[in-house]
Design goal:
There is one protein chain. By secondary structure, the protein is α/β, with parallel strands linked by helices. The chain has one domain: Alpha-Beta Barrel (TIM Barrel). It contains eleven helices and eight strands. The protein has an eight-stranded parallel barrel, surrounded by eight helices. Helix 5 links the parallel strand 4 and strand 5. Helix 2 crosses helix 11, helix 7 runs parallel beside helix 8 and helix 10 packs antiparallel against helix 11. It starts with 5 loop residues before the first helix and ends in a 6-residue tail after the last helix.
Length: 284
């Protein structure tokens, strides 16, 4: 199928009350695992590449190759640059041919985040590129959240409404108790806050740091307005554990190609499970 537009994928998810799984790829082994799972589950998905992994491949030809594989699929698949933390990375993504980008100015004070995000949107609008932004602190350091310091980490509903109105972004990633990577403390999503944000923000909401959040919490978050959920660490961990199993002295020796295939299957299993939890199965 042709490349599915980011905004159309999220609009359908919001209309039909499911979430699109956004799965990060950084090597060829992850790409077929995600696409095969999506086709088997008849699910729309988003593929993402983060600047953190740009050095893993020659970016422009790699993006072209990813698009060629998407074109062969029988389900809607989108492509997004994930977590561009500098404007120069947005330019790099546009030159490589990304149809949508995520600008992450969340580490900056609110006013600077707003100004930089607005600049990115202005650049992208003329090119027909959709923009996701982020507001709030995802607490990747695992700081204990209290009622006193919550305002320093979590997304404010009023600020979110103003931010979206001022910048014109197509989607907003929020901080409601989620974090990137492996959780240092048990994730506890603030569902009341999420509900309040959803009431005030007209664009689809995104949940980053999906790996490690309980399945029941995902379902509740989707009910309250989350339309896109990012997954990477869970896939990476599954691949690592499968490789450890294959290299265990007690395991029958395997060649490198077989090891790559087996780790691909482990990643595929994660994607299929997440598609089921996110409710996107049979939504293609």
């Amino acid at each position: 199928m042709p490349l599915a537009p980011y905004d159309e994928l999220l609009a359908d998810a919001r209309d039909r009350n499911y979430a699109v799984g956004a799965f990060n790829i950084f090597a060829l082994e992850f790409l077929p695992a995600i696409l095969e799972a999506a086709e088997e589950e008849k699910s729309p998905v988003l593929l993402q590449i983060a600047p953190l992994h740009f050095h893993m491949a020659d970016l422009n030809p790699y993006v072209t190759y990813v698009k060629s594989q998407i074109a062969k699929t029988k389900v809607p698949v989108g492509l997004n640059m994930d977590h561009g933390k500098e404007v120069r990375l947005i330019y790099q993504a546009l030159q490589a041919g990304f149809p949508s980008v995520m600008f992450d100015g969340s580490r900056f004070p609110y006013e600077k985040n707003l100004a930089l995000t607005k600049r990115v949107v202005d650049i992208c609008r003329s090119l027909g590129i959709t923009v996701e932004a982020e507001l709030g602190n995802l607490n990747d350091e695992g700081v204990h959240i209290t009622n006193v310091n919550k305002k320093d980490f979590f997304t404010s509903p009023d600020e979110a409404a103003e931010f979206v109105a001022e910048t014109g972004v197509d989607a907003l990633a929020v901080a409601v108790g989620n974090a990137h990577g492996i959780y240092k403390i048990e994730p506890k999503l603030d569902f009341e806050l999420l509900e309040n944000i959803a009431k005030k923000v007209p664009v689809p909401l995104v949940l980053h740091g999906g790996s490690g959040i309980p399945d029941a919490d995902f379902k509740k978050a989707i009910e309250l307005g989350i339309c896109k959920i990012n997954i990477f660490t869970e896939m990476s961990s599954a691949a690592r554990e499968k490789m450890k199993e294959l290299l265990n002295p007690g395991h029958n020796p395997v060649d490198y190609v077989t090891a790559l295939y087996e780790t691909r299957q482990a990643v595929k299993n994660v994607v299929r499970h997440r598609i089921g939890i996110f409710g996107s199965q049979n939504k293609a």
